[in-house]
Structure to design on (341 residues):
């Protein structure tokens, strides 16, 4: 069963129910009024044809305009599809002998159907291919499709491809699928595995280059069990817990175990010896410290220096006077060159 057939079933059923209800309520009254006005004849048949035309127009308006507009709402689509709701953004891992890449797949609503498109990136975050479904057959839980790769010119045989996926079956809406993809002119198949992004924050990050790099780094490690080499550093995967400082604690424990256990008397004796060594060290420091000089010491030295020249001058004067009285030599008094008389 194709789950998307529910949209046609719902729109046709509701439209038919509204028309039948309107005929049941207003039909007898309208038919009686037409019969009384036009009588039985061509006029009656013309009035009935006009009424049928109105009903057909109402039917087309409901099924082709009103309900398709309502079916654009995600809440209505979820209610109609139920557990078969697959629309949203998916991350798809593609694995082969020499291939490892991831694709962003968008399944968007399109009236009573859907649009399936996406692009694939390698480990260097370079786009290798894209996909747009041209035909699909959806029979729950399998979907077979044919897609076109617009990045290929056809010479490499990767212009067109086919694929088949199987959605997981559970009571809630599917969040995982697996299957394969294969280019029409290439016999190699790629195993694919997809997971649906349920967090709006991750979907919004895919719109920017930095955010896409972060999301790809996280899911690359989950799909391929290895860290992705990113342009802006290491992928934000969960880091292993830091090892406990076993060596330091073991060394400390060994030192504590090797230390001898002292009694109260031995500990007191050791403390006394430590205090004695500290006191001796303090005395040595005190002896080596130069005493601080006060301002009064500097003033006393200045007075002594000022008195010393006066004593030397007076002594010189006396010596010169005594020498002149003897008459043996002539000396100069107070630094002058004149002889004493």
């Amino acid at each position: 069963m194709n789950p998307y057939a529910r949209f046609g079933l719902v729109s046709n059923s509701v439209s038919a129910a509204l028309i039948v209800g309107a005929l049941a309520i207003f039909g007898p009254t309208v038919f009686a009024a037409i019969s009384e006005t036009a009588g039985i004849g061509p006029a009656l048949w013309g009035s009935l044809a006009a009424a049928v035309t109105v009903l057909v127009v109402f039917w087309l308006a409901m099924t082709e305009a009103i309900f398709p507009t309502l079916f654009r709402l995600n809440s209505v689509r979820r209610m109609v599809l139920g557990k078969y709701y697959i629309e949203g953004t998916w991350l798809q891992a593609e694995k082969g002998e020499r291939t490892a890449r991831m694709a962003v797949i968008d399944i968007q609503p399109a009236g009573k159907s859907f649009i399936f498109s996406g692009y694939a990136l390698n480990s260097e975050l370079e786009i290798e291919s894209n996909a747009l479904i041209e035909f699909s057959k959806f029979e729950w839980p399998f979907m077979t499709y044919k897609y076109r790769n617009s990045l290929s010119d056809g010479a490499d045989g990767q212009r067109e491809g086919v694929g088949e996926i199987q959605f997981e079956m559970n009571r809630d809406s599917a969040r995982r699928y697996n299957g394969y993809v294969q280019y029409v002119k290439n016999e190699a198949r790629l195993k694919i595995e997809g997971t649906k992004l349920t967090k709006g924050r991750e979907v919004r990050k895919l719109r920017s280059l930095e955010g896409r790099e972060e999301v790809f780094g996280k899911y690359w490690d989950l799909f391929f069990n290895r860290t992705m080499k990113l342009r802006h550093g290491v992928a934000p995967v969960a880091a292993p817990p830091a090892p406990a400082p076993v060596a330091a604690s073991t060394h400390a424990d060994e030192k504590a175990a090797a230390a001898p256990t002292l009694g109260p008397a031995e500990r007191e004796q050791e403390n006394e010896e430590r205090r004695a060594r500290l006191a001796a060290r303090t005395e040595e420091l005190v002896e080596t410290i130069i005493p601080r000089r006060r301002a009064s010491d500097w003033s006393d030295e200045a007075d002594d220096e000022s008195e010393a020249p006066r004593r030397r001058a007076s002594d010189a004067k006396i010596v010169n006077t005594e020498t002149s009285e003897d008459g043996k030599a002539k000396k100069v008094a107070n630094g002058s060159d004149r002889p004493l008389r």
